From TrEMBL:
Annotated ranges, domain Replication factor-A protein 1 N-terminal: 7-102
Domain Replication protein A OB span(s) in chain numbering: 300-398
Subunit structure: Component of the heterotrimeric canonical replication protein A complex (RPA).
Lineage: Eukaryota, Metazoa, Ecdysozoa, Arthropoda, Hexapoda
Tree of life domain: Eukaryota
The protein, known as: Replication protein A subunit
Organism per entry: Aedes albopictus (Asian tiger mosquito)
Predominant place of localization: nucleus
Keyword RNA-binding: no
Compositional bias segments (type: Low complexity): 129-144
Domain OB: 191-274
Domain (Replication factor A C-terminal) ranges: 456-601
Keywords assigned by UniProt, alphabetized: DNA replication, DNA-binding, Metal-binding, Nucleus, Zinc, Zinc-finger
Length: 614
């Protein structure tokens, strides 16, 4: 095959014959927008040339309009067959990914003298003839992977899709030419899609005046788009156990209808309903030719800034889980089960996740599992944000992925002790808000920290002792990362979060100090920013002193021993195996404002003696 200037001469005929080509170069002679609506409003039908042949059954699977005479390199493509009723079936070239070799205005003319590709030019029954001869089951360019099997002519009574759709459950769809999801419409009824299951709902039942029933739905995707598929009654029984998230299936003979956007956030104007004729078969050799489920993880620390009802992806580790609570719903009288799980991530923040029903009952919090959630819903109560699952949500426990391993590594190194902020805490509990004055004895009497949420209070206390030996740790040198690094013993320090090795590190303060008021003492954890403020030294200065000048380090810590501060504290009971302890963290530490503290003492005296203020 020769090249005519910039173009891959003869490539269009080869593509129509099923030959796999590596990044062919063609010219666009015309681009016409296809009318549509909603999420899929702009797509373009192209007239393309390879310098020898013209072909006007090419489409862009993107919303990219290209100028006349533009020369493009097709990096990834598929071919599909559309049914044109009395005109028969036509093979369509769908361009999934491309690179502009030279813009149209810079080319300025048609290259060569291309002629319209005839039926015989496509070979094997022609580009426009019904597909009764050998043709590839699915053709993708280099950069994607073909399934490598060819469609063989069978007595199927019509084209490939007509036979596949009507051949019954015993007919294999493995070698059938498939149709991109984004090009489905209610006006076509002969198609087969090959798609990966992104999510699968549980079985839901209903009962009303019209009768009883059940259903489940699944969201599926291919290279071109995504769509929801719903099964009722018999189809629910037939396919529910068969369908598994992440697996790839051939699907044909479903009814298409406009999507109900009230219940779906998918970017598709249509959705599918299974019928009695529906056929679903697992694709055993999908390989890497099908895109995997994509996640757009939102750091937990950012959830507090999100709108209620937003749908997001989250990865975190279960720091703790409450007991399963059972109660009766007031509206329906149904027995419900609920469980609160606290998730933390590398942003050093926590969020509450609510599980219901079987999810709550079956959840195993042992060993602090990593949870990955696709499509969690943000909820709001009292100014705090929490997470819940909806029908389309997918919850995975301890998946074998790089992201999950990074979160696990962070938690085992510093994460279990570095989380102090919860986006689920109701407004008013932070350092900048008024908190209740209590003594340590009163905080213990009130059993603070034993509930589902952390508690906050403030106390005037004196620093009695500081664990200076372990007051710093070696952290990632990048400004935006504070993860503890691993000393490789070769002059390099590895950060699992950044997935990189560094010749240096930075010190981060993480100080445990024993503080006490007149009633009792308590160990309190102080993190870097607040510790630097209290010590009057940077983490780096303290770390250097601890390593090279022990006497200087001792002076730094001794300088604040026996000093009094008004501490704003966060307290929460945490469980470690069979044991528990009340962990207290300093949110703020301010010099004593004697006027305010005296007012607090006077108020206490008045309450104790019954003297009213006049």
């Amino acid at each position: 095959m020769s090249h005519n200037g910039m173009l891959t001469t003869g490539c269009i005929a080869d593509i129509m014959r099923g030959t796999e080509l590596e990044k062919p170069v063609v010219q666009i002679l015309e681009s016409r927008r296809i009318a549509g609506g909603g999420e899929q409003s702009e797509r373009y039908r192209l007239l393309i040339s390879d310098g020898q042949n013209l072909y006007n059954f090419a489409m862009l699977a993107t919303q990219l309009n290209l100028a006349e005479y533009t020369v493009i390199r097709i990096d990834r493509y598929i071919t599909s067959v559309v049914n044109r009723n009395e005109k028969g079936e036509k093979r369509v070239l769908i361009i999934l990914d491309l690179h502009v070799v030279k813009p149209g205005p810079a080319v300025g003319e048609k290259i060569g003298n291309p002629q319209t590709l005839t039926d015989t030019g496509a070979g094997g029954g022609g580009a426009g003839a019904p597909s009764t001869a050998a043709a590839p089951a699915r053709t993708e360019s280099a950069g994607s992977v073909s399934n490598g099997s060819a469609y063989q002519n069978r007595s199927m009574g019509g084209g490939m899709h007509g036979g596949a759709a009507s051949g019954g459950d015993n007919l294999s769809l493995e070698n059938t030419l498939t149709h991109p999801i984004s090009f489905l419409s209610p006006y076509q009824n002969k198609w087969v899609i090959r798609a990966r299951v992104m999510s699968k709902s549980g079985i839901r039942t209903w009962s009303n005046a019209k009768g009883e029933g059940k259903l489940f739905s699944m969201d599926v995707m291919d290279e071109s788009g995504e769509i929801r598929v719903t099964a009722f009654k018999e189809q629910c029984d037939k396919y529910y156990e068969m369908i598994e998230v992440d697996k790839v299936y051939y699907i044909t003979k479903c009814q298409l209808k406009p999507a109900n956007k009230q219940y779906s956030t998918l970017k598709n104007d249509y959705e599918m309903t299974m019928t009695n004729d529906t056929i679903i078969q697992e694709c055993k050799d999908a390989g890497s030719s099908m895109p995997s489920i994509q996640y757009n993880f939102v750091p937990i620390s950012q959830i507090g800034n999100m709108e209620a009802n937003a749908i997001i992806d989250v990865i975190g580790i279960c720091k703790e889980a409450g007991d399963v609570m059972q109660f009766t719903a007031r509206s329906s009288g149904r027995e419900l089960k609920k469980r609160e799980v606290t998730l933390v991530d590398t942003s050093s923040a926590a969020v509450s996740l609510t599980l219901w029903g079987e999810d709550a009952q079956n959840f195993n919090a042992a060993s602090n599992p990593v949870l990955v959630i696709k499509g969690a819903r943000v909820t709001e109560f009292g100014g705090g944000k929490s997470l819940g699952l909806v029908a389309s949500s997918v919850l995975k426990t301890n998946p074998d992925t790089d992201d999950a391993h990074r979160v696990r590594g962070w938690y085992l190194s510093v994460g279990c002790d570095s989380v102090i902020n919860s986006v689920s805490t109701r407004t008013g509990a932070g350092a900048g808000y008024s908190t209740e004055w209590l003594t340590f004895h009163e905080a213990k009497e009130k059993n603070l920290g034993a509930g589902d949420k952390p508690d906050y209070f403030q106390v005037k206390a004196v620093i009695h002792n500081i664990k200076s030996a372990n007051a710093v740790y070696k952290a990632c040198p990048r400004p935006e990362c504070n993860k503890k690094v691993i000393d490789q013993d070769n002059g390099q320090y590895r950060c699992e979060k950044c997935n990189a090795d560094f010749p240096n590190f930075k010190y981060r303060l993480l100080v445990n100090m024993l503080v006490g008021d007149w009633t009792s003492k308590r160990w309190v954890t102080v993190f870097a920013d607040l510790a630097e403020e209290m010590l009057g030294k940077s983490s780096q200065d303290v770390g250097d002193a601890l390593e090279f000048n022990k006497d200087e380090a001792e002076k730094i810590f001794s300088a604040i021993n026996f000093k009094s501060y008004v501490f704003k504290l966060r307290t929460k009971v945490e469980f470690y195996g069979d044991s528990s302890r009340n962990k207290t963290t300093a949110v703020a530490a301010n010099p004593v404002n004697h006027k305010e503290y005296n007012a607090y003492l006077i108020k206490n005296i008045q309450e104790m003696t019954g003297i009213s203020k006049h």
